[in-house]
Amino acid sequence: MIIAVVVIVLIVLYAIATYNGLVKSKNKCLAAWAQIDVQLKRRADMIPNIVETVKGYAKHEKETLEGAIRARNSYVTASTPEEQLKNAGELERSLSRLMMLQESYPDLKANTNFMSLQNDLKETEDKISYARQFYNDDVKQYVNKLEMFPSNIIASMFHFEKMNFFEVDEASKEVPKVQF
């Protein structure tokens, strides 16, 4: 009888520890996503300033400038992480096209405001890259817990759901082409 009680207590303690570990992993993933979101929003907030700076030099580049603003607005208004992931790729592509404009405008390259914004953007892109890496590492650990025995039993009992990795879509991998 005592052995049965001890076994039951150990099983309950294991279940509690596993459940808490899953919750901790899930929350770590959510916190990592929040860090990506902060940096993506910072980048999105920079775009209007970059567009305004470029406008002064590239008045006839209306389509590229408007595309950057549209992509920024789509990202900012996204309501789910999945939408944000999709729109972040478009934002990245439009920002690349926007930054390519500097090659055609030598005066723009020397503009102090533009150079400062470009430097801030580079720092933000680096932070986004690191945040993506940490997020994907956290998601990998969480998904491993969801799939590995015996924690997968507790995960399925309490309906823990998989989280998506932050992946770059194929279009974002292509080098942007700017034609004049």
List keywords for this structure.
single chain, 180 residues, mainly alpha, de novo design (two linked rop proteins), 7 helices, disordered C terminus, LemA family protein, transmembrane helix
Task: Please describe what this structure looks like.
It is found in: Membrane. It is a single-pass membrane protein. It comes from Catenibacterium faecis. By secondary structure, the protein is mainly alpha-helical. It has one domain (22-173): Up-down Bundle (de novo design (two linked rop proteins)). It has seven helices and no strands. The chain has helices at 2-55, 62-77, 81-100, 106-110, 112-147, 151-157, 170-173. Mean pLDDT is 84; it is low at 175-180.
Rg for CA atoms: 23 Å
CATH homologous group name: LemA-like domain
**What share of the residues lie within helices?**
over 70%
In round numbers, the mean pLDDT is 84
Largest sheet: none
What is the CATH top level name? Answer: Mainly Alpha
First and last CA, distance: 84 Å
The ordered H/E elements are HHHHHHH
Provide the low-confidence segments as ranges. Answer: 175-180
CATH architectural group: Up-down Bundle
Q: What proportion of the residues form beta strands (DSSP E)?
A: under 5%
Number of strands: 0
The shape is rod-shaped
Structural class: mainly alpha
Question: How is the CATH topology named?
Answer: de novo design (two linked rop proteins)
Q: How many structural domains?
A: 1
Number of DSSP helical runs = 7
Organism: Catenibacterium faecis
Family: Belongs to the LemA family.
Pfam families: LemA
Membrane topology: Single-pass membrane protein
